[in-house]
Design goal:
The complex is a heterodimer of chains A (about 325) and B (about 650).
Chain A (H helix, E strand, L loop, with lengths): L2 H12 L5 E7 L6 E6 L2 H4 L25 E5 L1 H12 L8 E5 L8 H10 L7 E7 L2 E6 L2 E6 H4 L2 H4 L11 E2 L13 H7 L3 H13 L6 H5 L25 H14 L9 H5 L6 H16 L29
Parallel strand pairs in A: 1-3, 3-4, 4-8
Antiparallel strand pairs in A: 1-2, 5-6, 6-7
Helix pairs in contact in A: 8-10
Chain B lengths: L2 E6 L3 H4 L4 H9 L4 E7 L5 H14 L3 E6 L2 H14 L7 E5 L1 H5 L5 H19 L9 E3 L3 E5 L3 H12 L3 E5 L14 E2 L4 E2 H14 L3 E4 L2 E9 L2 E8 L14 H5 L5 E2 L8 E2 L2 E2 L11 E2 L5 H5 L4 H5 L12 E7 L1 E4 L3 E3 L16 E3 H8 L20 E8 L15 H15 L4 E6 L9 H10 L4 E4 L2 E7 L2 E8 L4 E7 L1 E6 L1 E3 L3 H8 L26 E3 L9 H18 L4 E3 L5 E3 L9 H5 L5 E6 L2 E6 L9 H5 L5 E3 L4 H18 L1
Parallel strand pairs in B: 1-2, 1-3, 3-4, 6-7, 6-18, 7-10, 18-29, 20-27, 21-22, 21-27, 22-23
Antiparallel strand pairs in B: 5-30, 8-9, 11-12, 12-17, 13-14, 15-16, 19-28, 24-25, 25-26, 31-34, 32-33
Classes of the chains: A alpha/beta (about 325), B alpha/beta (about 650).
Bound molecules: flavin-adenine dinucleotide (FAD) and iron/sulfur cluster (4 copies).
The site of one iron/sulfur cluster has 9 residues of chain A, from helix 10.
């Protein structure tokens, strides 16, 4: 049985216990998948799982209130958000059912677009897409183009430590055994630049932000929604003025609010319509947290995130010499 | 909103370096300001009346007083505003004295800064809302931590005043350092003769519960309602049945156990009562030297104990004491003098500490009151006392004066002559500090009647040679090098806060300095209070001091507790956190980070929400910085109030630019 069929069977089996199961379905064209909300067995047929299933579906878990029982299909990285949400009591273990998957990596459609553009082809004209022998095979403008996954894979997948769902009630397929160490080499390389160079870089990037809040809305851990302090008047931290300061400030709030919680699923960056490398900002904080507290977010449901804790004497920061 | 601004001259304290008239003038054009005026002394009777009159005549909604620190007069002016009929929280203070006039001489710059601070206070006040206190009842029991002479005094005074007292002592007996002293200056009366009866009073007082061999594990609650978790450390002897007969000590075969009461110059038995007058007079087993614990064999004490009190399986016991106030009287310890390599760093047996010397002088000490040098047990004839070892010495990070060493060194020199009439004492000192009733006379007596030779200067080196200790130093008055061949060297080692005092301070949420001494509320006006309501200080825990001062402070702390408990109800501070229910997502992160346990979970229409217990919240604000979307806000210090201040400050910058 294929992994997809195994998953479907598991959902059919558990559906009677659940109000809804969130998975992926076919999107508006052959390169896009879209969240699928399964409430009946008939919906299960529409389920898809392949490297185009980029969305982190755990984002939807906090939108149902505490009465509903929800099933969610997760890749390795997505499952860490579920763990984080559980730790923060934003969802409850008896109200979620996790369908875990192994994942070898997803495609970065930005890379696909650029790879096709390099061949003078337009991603918008892709009529069919499939996967064969580690290649993404697309039919575009009458030609069949093979793009090796290694070239169009999301960056986060290349350094992934958690290919398999870290928490699950059902697991389809075979766990992947190899894993990258993720040493934050990308952040370290960025830090090589001078402060001025980095400031200049971010200034240029942030200038493009249109404050559409897509990044925040895609974030599984930005649960404040209408009351996000990036938008509210009471308290009124950021004005609605359109200026670099305000955009930058909003992004700094977003990043610091995720420090020690962000699981680096990269949804903010993927959602951004103007391609701001938001994950780099989040990973910078991830690296700091790892170095300071020896902690990676969303890996242990029983752990207490270090910044959400009050300790007179931190285990890893010995200020007092006790 | 109509705001009044009152700019204080504080005589010339502020007006000397700030143009207060100009500050008042500038305030007039600030948003919402309806009235602004300078005043000579805002806190004086006419000053306060001026504020009240202005509020009433102009129909003001709030007042800003630009003067000194709120710690000094914040509550004064809140009462003034209240007397004028306003809510006391419709008030802000701009500190233009400590933050401006006292720290800068440039009048133009000072005036500009004072205007900025007033602008911030006005912007904040425009966002203030009336707040109301709640009253809550208090538990009129008091806990005293530390059973030295200061804690004993506080315990007896509180108990005599009719309060229930819980005294917690770390070691197996109360008495502290004073119990180890032989005689006490300036009267040279026997220490245990004057302390002993007090210790007995503690044991017999119907209002005092004594927990010896116990330590504070955790402190919850707030003024009037503290819950203190006390760990009663296992002694392996059932103290309810032990009568203190000492039969076990006689038979215990482990006779070479460490004797901390005797400052390690003698040895004791593994099961012991530290000294004959110990309170409680109960035996306890030192696990590290007990043969039963080390090898599983022995058990002799259990066999000889007539009341079968020995219990090798005893465990630490946790108890919770509910009290309304706490007095910390944990005293001091000698600093680790081994940092002095030049005095041998502990390698020479005949270089000892002053406290070890006290034990040697004491008739109940390990030498039976005979002075014998540790190396060969011979009676020393030449004794050198070195003062200021770990005091007034920046090279070892101890800049402060321990205060009592000059006095006890003189005492020890006098006692030495009494014990060994043909002996010679030398005292190396820096300055003699003897300010106290009969104190200077006392040090003079040591020199003039008892012939102690005082040499003003530091000792550079102590080393052994032919059975003697050579003490090399400088006599700064004679301008000459001196060398003394001593038989025994006694170091007047400086005091520091008792071991573990920093940890205790964190539990009590009081401030402490880098030497482990607790910080008083105000160095002059609040010497026994702390910045945490309901926690008081007594004795050396607050800073080194001699017995008379420790006792006086013990009584003072008791008086504070008695006056606190003279009321039946206390008013809570309404500057506490509050949850905006519609913003709260019920993550309870605030509850996890709140160090006071002031936040509980509630359910509102099926959704989990946070709720602040107003009387427990201390207004620290930690939760507000934890809650990302700002659902929990500290009243009177909301994000918007602070942002208003920041914006006011920055807007003045943009104006100037
Ligand atoms: C060598 C020497 C000679 C001196 N001679 C004189 C003299 O002649 N005349 C004079 O006026 N002064 C003298 N002093 C000073 C005198 O010792 C002090 O003034 C006095 O002991 C201070 O009393 P205290 O209760 O504050 O502290 P301490 O005597 O130190 O008592 C503190 C008590 O608290 C206990 N404790 C500590 N930590 C904890 C804890 N965490 N929990 C529970 N209990 C705790 C300790 O075990 C101790 O019992 C001398 C000092 C020294 C070093
Ligand atoms: S998604 Fe991009 S453009 Fe939109 S608010 Fe976030 S960073 Fe700005
Ligand atoms: S940025 Fe902060 S306040 Fe805004 S939604 Fe995310 S966590 Fe909440
Ligand atoms: S941290 Fe904020 S959102 Fe979370 S429970 Fe507390 S008040 Fe509510
Ligand atoms: S301000 Fe918040 S964290 Fe501080 S005591 Fe009050 S509820 Fe607890």
């Amino acid at each position: 049985m294929s992994l997809q069929d195994e998953l479907k069977a598991q959902i059919v089996k558990r559906l009677p216990e659940l109000d809804v199961v969130i998975g992926w379905g076919q999107g508006y064209d052959s390169l896009h998948r879209t969240p699928l909300f399964i409430t009946s067995e008939a919906d299960v047929d529409k389920l898809v799982f392949d490297p185009l299933c980029v969305h982190n579906l755990s984002t939807y878990l906090t939108r149902y209130g505490s009465a509903k029982r929800i099933g969610v299909v997760v890749k390795g990285c997505d499952s860490r958000s579920v763990v984080e949400l559980l730790q923060e009591k934003l969802i409850h273990r008896d109200k979620v059912m996790v369908f875990g998957l192994p994942c070898e990596g997803v495609a970065d459609l930005g890379k696909v677009k650029r790879a096709l553009a390099a061949k003078d082809l337009d991603m918008g004209r892709v009529r069919a897409a499939s996967f064969a022998d580690g290649d993404l095979v697309v039919t575009v403008s009458g030609q069949e183009i093979r793009l090796p996954m290694a070239e169009v894979q999301a960056d986060k997948c290349g350094r992934c430590r958690y290919h398999n769902a870290v928490i699950h009630d059902e697991f389809a397929g075979q766990p992947i055994t190899e894993a990258a160490p993720d040493t934050y080499a990308d952040v370290a390389a960025f830090e090589e630049q001078t402060l001025e160079e980095r400031m200049e870089f971010w200034r240029e990037q942030m200038e493009r932000c249109v404050r559409c809040y897509a990044c925040r809305n895609a974030c599984p851990l930005c649960v404040c929604r209408d009351y996000c302090i990036g938008q509210s008047r009471e308290p009124n931290w950021v004005s609605q003025r359109d200026g670099l300061e305000e955009k930058f400030f909003f992004q700094m709030i977003h990043a610091t609010h995720l420090a020690g919680r962000c699981t680096e699923c990269g949804e903010c960056e993927r959602a951004c319509p103007v391609d701001i490398p938001l994950l780099l900002l989040k990973r910078k904080l991830g690296k700091e947290i790892l170095e300071l507290f020896d902690y990676r977010a969303g890996t242990d449901p029983d752990a207490k995130p270090p910044l959400l804790n009050f300790k007179v004497q931190e285990d890893t920061i010995n200020e007092r010499g006790w | 909103m109509k705001i009044g601004v009152f700019v204080c001259h504080c005589g010339s304290n502020i007006a000397g370096t700030v143009d207060v008239v100009q500050v008042a003038e500038a305030a007039k054009s600030m948003p919402e300001v309806a009235f602004a005026k300078d005043t000579m002394y805002a806190c004086s009777e006419p000053g306060q009346q001026g504020i009240i009159d202005a509020i009433k005549e102009m129909g003001l909604d709030g007042a800003v007083v630009a003067s000194c620190t709120p710690r000094m007069h914040g509550s004064t002016f809140m009462r003034t505003v209240a007397r004028a009929g306003l809510n006391p929280y419709m008030f802000e203070m701009a500190n233009i004295r400590e933050h401006v006039s006292w720290i800068g001489k440039d009048k133009v710059a000072n005036t500009r800064k004072a205007i900025d601070l007033v602008r911030m206070a006005v912007a904040k006040l425009a966002q203030n809302k009336p707040l109301y206190s709640q009253s809550f009842s208090i538990n009129k029991r008091v806990m005293i931590i530390g059973g030295g002479v200061a804690g004993i005094q506080a315990a007896l005074d509180c108990a005599d005043g009719g309060l229930q007292v819980v005294l917690v002592e770390k070691t197996t007996t109360i008495g502290g350092k004073m119990a180890k002293l032989d005689k006490t200056f300036p009267t040279v009366d026997c220490s245990s003769c004057i302390l002993g009866p007090r210790m007995v009073d503690v044991a017999q007082h119907p209002n005092i519960t004594l927990h010896a061999s116990a330590e504070v594990d955790e402190v919850f609650g707030y003024v009037g309602n503290y819950q203190v978790e006390v760990r009663k450390k296992a002694t392996y002897v059932n103290w309810k049945t032990c009568t203190g007969c000492g039969a076990c000590m006689e038979k215990c075969p482990s006779k070479k156990s460490k004797d901390p009461f005797n400052e390690l110059i003698g040895t004791t038995t593994a099961i012991n009562i530290p000294f004959p007058q110990a309170i409680p007079k109960r035996a306890s087993i030192d696990r590290d030297s007990c043969i039963k614990f080390k090898t599983g064999k022995c058990g002799i004490c259990a066999k000889v104990c007539p009341t079968k009190a020995i219990d090798y399986d005893q465990q630490d016991e946790m108890i919770t004491e509910e009290v309304g106030a706490i007095i910390a009287a944990t005293g001091f310890d000698l600093m680790d003098w081994h940092v002095y390599g030049q005095y041998g760093a502990g390698r020479y047996p005949d270089v000892i500490t002053s406290l070890q010397y006290e034990r040697m002088l004491s008739a109940s000490g390990p030498t039976g009151g005979h002075i014998k040098r540790p190396s060969d047990k011979k009676e020393p004839k030449t004794i050198v006392f070195i003062q200021c070892v770990g005091s007034r010495d920046k090279s070892v990070g101890r800049p402060y004066c321990t205060g009592f060493c000059c006095m006890y060194t003189a005492k020890q020199a006098i006692l030495t002559k009494d014990h060994i009439p043909d002996s010679e004492s030398y005292v190396f000192y820096m300055d003699i500090r003897a300010p106290g009733k009969m104190y200077d006379e006392f040090t003079r007596r040591a020199m003039e009647e008892y012939g102690a030779k005082y040499i003003r200067g530091r000792v550079s080196m102590v080393y052994p040679q032919d059975g003697k200790m050579i003490v090399r130093g400088v006599d700064t008055l004679a301008g000459a090098q001196v060398e003394v061949e001593a038989d025994l060297v006694v170091l007047a080692v400086g005091a520091e806060g008792a071991a573990g005092s920093a940890q205790l301070a964190e539990k009590l949420r009081i401030s402490y300095d880098s030497y482990g001494f607790f910080m008083e509320g105000h160095p002059k006006l609040k010497p026994v209070e702390t910045n945490t309501a309901g926690v008081y200080l007594a004795g050396c825990a607050q800073g080194p001091k001699d017995i008379p001062s420790s006792v006086a402070q013990g009584s003072a702390a008791a008086a504070k507790v008695l006056s606190l408990f003279s009321k039946d109800q206390l008013q809570s501070d309404p500057q506490v956190s509050k949850v905006d229910l519609k913003r709260c997502v019920g993550c309870m992160k605030c509850a996890i980070t709140c160090p006071f346990g002031a936040i509980k979970e509630t359910e509102v229409r099926g959704e989990i929400k946070a709720q602040v217990i107003e009387t427990i919240c201390q207004g620290c604000g930690i939760c507000t910085s934890t809650c990302r979307q700002g659902a929990i806000q500290l009243q009177n210090f909301t994000d918007n109030q602070i942002l208003a201040e920041v914006n006011a400050l920055l807007s003045s910058e943009t104006e100037e630019a």
